[in-house]
Amino acid sequence: MSQEDNRKHVLELMNQKDKIEDEIKQLTSILTQNGVGMNDPLVDPEGYPINSIDVYQVRNARHRIICLQNDHKNIMKQIENGLQGYYSTSSTSNMQVTPMDTDRPEIVVHKTPFA
Fold it and tell me: What UniProt keywords are attached to this protein's entry (predicted)?
């Protein structure tokens, strides 16, 4: 994969990551509107659904958030690998190897002040 192709692939992955993060924010707002988080109970102590909570909507939002978090982790790993590949190819292609020449004369530096 060329460096430019790798760059485009990483940018596409970053766009996907942004979309996932936006969707997670939207789903989190559904949870906050219902006054619950990811782990709060949806039933009262007697086992009945709490009236102020749309249980169906909250359960679907929680499920979707969990799926999106897993997708986010996978995309972040792909971005990491893509960036490593991008910078490993750019550093090797731009690197110029110059052999050390041991026959060069040393530069003499005078350490006495001139004034």
Answer: Proteasome
